[in-house]
Amino acid sequence: MAKLEEYGRKRRFDRTPEPPPRVAARGDGTFVVQKHAARRLHYDFRLGIDGVLKSWAVPKGPSLDPADKRLAVQTEDHPMDYGGFEGKIPEGSYGAGSVMVWDRGTFEVEDAAKYGGARSGAGNVDPAKELARGELKFRLAGEKLRGSFVLVKLKRSEKGNEWLLIKHKDAAAEPGWNVEQHDGSVLTGRTLEEIADELPPRRGASAIEPGELAGARKGAMPARVAPMLATLAAQPFSDPDWLYEIKWDGARVLAWVADGKATLRSRSGGDVTLQYPELAALPESIAAKRAIVDGEVVVLDEHGHSNFERLQERMHVRPSAELIARHPVTYYAFDLLYCDGYDLREAALAGRKELLRLLLRPDGAVRFSDHQAEQGKELFELARREGLEGVIGKRADSRYVSARSPNWVKFKATQTLEAVVGGWTAPRGGRAYFGSLLLGLYEDEKLRFIGHVGSGFDAQGQEAIAADLKRLAVGKCPFDKVPETNEKAFWAKPELVARVRFAGWTQEGRLRAPVFIALRADARPEDCRWEGEVPDAAPSSNVAAAGAPGPAAASAVVNGREFAGKVLSSAAKIEAELSSGKQENILVELDGKRFRLSNLNKIYFPESGYTKRDLLSYYYRIADYILPFLKDRPLVLRRYPDGIRGQAFFQKDVREGAPTWLETVAIASESGGRDVHYAVANDRASLLYLTGLGCIDHNPWSSRKDDLEHPDYFFFDLDPSEGTEFSVVVKLARLLHEKLDELGMKVFLKTSGATGFHMYLPVERGYTYEQLRTFGEIVSRLVTAEAPELVTHERTVAKRPAGRVLIDVAQNAEGRPLAAAYAVRAFPKAPVSTPVVPSELRANLRAERFNIKTLAARIAEKGDLWADFWKSRQRIEKVFQKLDLQARQH
After folding, report:
1. What is the DSSP string of 743-799?
2. Is 54 helix (H, G, I), strand (E, B) or coil?
3. 312 Cβ partners below 8 Å, 6+ apart?
4. CB 769 within 8 Å of CB 812
5. Measured between alpha carbons, how far is residue 144 from residues 33, 333, 641 in Å?
6. Nearest-CA neighbor of 756 among 808, 800, 702?
7. Which of 83, 118, 254, 671 has its CA 20 to 30 A from that of 815?
């Protein structure tokens, strides 16, 4: 407890909700960043080391821009439990203010030698000793922060606690990165203001549950699973719909975790558990009782690179303690196929990896194989410079199939492949056993000869291979055509797989300068295929369609990036494709504005089966009704890239990556830093583009960009306690409408699309937010006096009495938007925030009846109930005059 003595001394735990001091047995290797609105707004950066969170206050927040050198002031150690703390520290307490879990994840200590330091031996570096030395290099795998960083202690610091937090230049680096563009809690989805107001979480505080992933199917754990394999791509490409991972030069291993034990199986299905005893602790490294994990077993060299030659000594043997110490293995886990009762193979890769990342507790032998979104070319160039094997590209929405798939591709920085051994040639020179191995790849059902390899063998290895060849000798050539050889050829049953390094391909399809590396007993001959290992001159059509643009495909430039595919510019064709098309990705041009819509077949609403295409089709058809309430208004984006069951996040600033035609408005940030560039949706193209980013609902400010301080409407948000019948909400809405009507105010009504109700009053511009809130508070008090049994003033949902409704007017504030009329809401049946008339305020009103599939018929029947909204602007002085007159009469 001595580590946390200062933490405990500063706090009164009978007054603050912060966790008490406790040194934890687990949690090392995790990190958290908490945004803290204390006396000064800052970010607390914390690393789990030796049972506590080592902590630094970073005033300007961490950055992915290597040019930013952030001051980080070391503070007292915090307990591991603090990493999950989000809430309000009360006034009078140390650090009083709101705390948000801004980012979280895992970290690995990196070898200093990789970035020019003198130390070496990745995986053996003690982070506590590195901190004592004054410099710690580490790699983060968080939801927002990724890649390599360094903490460097300032030697001339007066207080002795000042450090610099600096991002290394790597594939995760982003010049110009702005922390304010990535706001929102990764724990609950809330802003600091919503935490301060004790508003309820926008998503669950716990990690993703397996059953929450779209496509997850409840069932027994499969006894056997063949691995998914990648197709070779001719050249690297970048695409926002793809994830890119380092290609490890090791042995593919699937791990079955059950009953506290791990069973490891090779690519061919053989049990290799005894070969890698270091991985027996895998069940302790994953927070799941039963799981199937896909990954790669590697041996790392002194630079932290995977080294297949060293791994070769560990393969096919039960290792001695000396061999384990000399060549310890590391398991890089990159996929999760099954977890605690759910088969995840039909879920999207991005969701599977996120769940794996949250469940995995990295240690020296088990690590998470991180990825880089979109930047395939950049990661490949880094791999090439570092002398790594290459890069694997995977569609973010790809399902797991036990076959070679164009949805996974590999870009090789070094030329290696695995080929079938179909024979050998007679020995020559000083060789006692054979001259060379004859190699082939399967093309359809035929074994195609690709050349022979005669170098790279040692005497001991040659003898062992010769024994295998003798055992497999046959009299008939297994190749589709008998190859010409310089020495007499002998044939073998095609059961051996050889790994070779080579310089390239001849025009005849033969290997140039091949060098033997090893036999691969863990690989299946039938997986060694021409179409899997030899790229076309240009990408094949199926790979191009999956996201790798090439000369064989039609192309167009969208926002500075070239994409394959035909541009849809006809309104009829766009509507037809969105309503009943089949394409996964399309290029659209509306009013001269070109943009890409991707992942159209992704399920956004699992319970109802509605897809992203359904959502876009709805907004395309409803645009004329919703756009009047979005026009010229800053929008706060709430993005659901994987649908309502995936991770959602808020985005205010859209300056980076948006098309040049998208209109934005620059507004000074709350912290007084750089301007925040909010999106504005003035036309159908903007509406569809923002929806394509994963925005299910659209949330405008109440004021327009030309006069941000003066809104032109006011709203009452009726927010019920948990479990309150909707009929209670409707009853209160009817009373509030009657009161406003009595006061002479024109009111427009709509369902919230969830459990609440919204009432809007268009007003003449000129009132401040504060003036309108005062008006709203007076009206709500009048209604509360008449029906106190229906109303609560408690803002914290968990503390509200059952059957009560909050009349919320506090949302009427600058930068505090509400979902627009006709906006879809992120709930299971894809409900729509739908205008209604006063006569519909009856006990049988059901908001869920109005959704993306039923609203068109409702509009056809009732018309646009808010068509006169902007013709009904009114002033609120008459309300105060009427109230004053009533007071005098009484």
Report:
1. TT---EEEE-SSS-EEEEEEB-BTB-HHHHHHHHHHHHHHHHHH-TTTEE---SGGG
2. strand
3. 517, 518
4. yes
5. 10, 20, 15
6. 808
7. 83
| pLDDT, mean of residues 449-478 | 93
Q: Which of 162-166, 180-184, 220-224, 243-247 shows the lowest mean pLDDT across its residues? A: 180-184
Burial of residue 9 (number of CB atoms within 10 Å: 0-12, 13-18, 19+): exposed
Task: Summarize the confidence of residues 4-18 as an average pLDDT.
Answer: 92
The residue among 885 and 649 whose pLDDT is bigger is: 649
Tell the burial category of 334 from Cβ atoms under 10 Å away from its Cβ (0-12, 13-18, 19+).
buried
pLDDT at 159: 78
C-alpha pair distances (Å), 619 with each of 352, 418, 613, 794, 826: 29, 50, 10, 36, 14
Closest CA to 360 of 255, 267, 259: 255
Distances (CA, A) of 303 to 115, 330, 799: 10, 14, 55
How many CA atoms lie less than 13 Å away from 654 in the CB half-sphere?
24
| E runs forming strands in 259-380 | 261-266, 291-299, 329-339, 342-343, 366-368, 372-374
Q: Which fold has domain 416-533?
A: OB fold (Dihydrolipoamide Acetyltransferase, E2P) (2.40.50)
DSSP letter at 608 equals T
Instruction: Evaluate whether 56 touches 44 at the Cβ level (below 8 Å).
Output: yes
Q: At which residue do the structure tokens 């996974």 appear?
A: 408
CATH class of 713-878: alpha beta
**Domain spans of the chain, in order of start:** 2-196, 211-412, 416-533, 626-700, 713-878
Residues 292-308 pLDDT 10s: 999 999 998 877 788 88
β-strands 437-443, 446-453 pairing: antiparallel
Q: What does each C-alpha distance from 682 to 232, 624, 689, 705, 825 come to in angstroms?
A: 43, 10, 12, 12, 20
Six-digit token pair at 144?
A: 């927002």
Residue in the structure block whose two tokens are 């902007």: 870
Q: Is the pLDDT of residue 503 over 50?
A: yes
- Residue 728 CA, chain-centre distance (Å), reads 39
Give the residue-averaged pLDDT of 105-125: 56
Q: List the one residue out of 778, 863, 864 whose CA is nearest residue 821.
A: 864
Amino acid, res. 17: P
Q: Residues 6 or more apart from 408 whose CB is under 8 A from it?
A: 228, 229, 230, 231, 392, 393, 394, 395, 398
State whether CATH 3.30.470.30 applies to domain 211-412: yes
Q: Is 732 exposed, middle or buried (0-12, 13-18, 19+ CB in 10 A)?
A: buried
Average pLDDT over residues 739-758: 95
Global model pTM greater than 0.70: no
Contact 587, 565 (CB under 8 A): yes
pLDDT at 839 over 60: yes
Task: Count how many Cα atoms sit within 13 Å of the Cα of residue 543 in the half-sphere of its side chain.
Answer: 30
The set of catalytic residues is 247
Which tokens in the block code for residue 842?
């009856």
Please enumerate in sequence order all residues whose Cβ is within 8 A of that of 468, keeping only pairs 6 or more positions apart, or say none: 496, 519
SS3 string, 660-688, reads CCCCEEEEECCCCCCEEEEECCCCHHHHH
Contacts 24+ apart (CB under 8 A), 503-506: 503/415, 504/415, 505/534
pLDDT computed for residue 422 by the predictor: 98
Task: Give the residue, 395 or 2, on which the prediction is more confident.
Answer: 395
Q: Is residue 116 predicted with pLDDT exceeding 60?
A: no
Contact 7/76 with Cβ under 8 angstroms?
yes
Phi, psi of 203 (to 5 degrees): -150, 165
Distance, CA of 371 to chain centre: 10
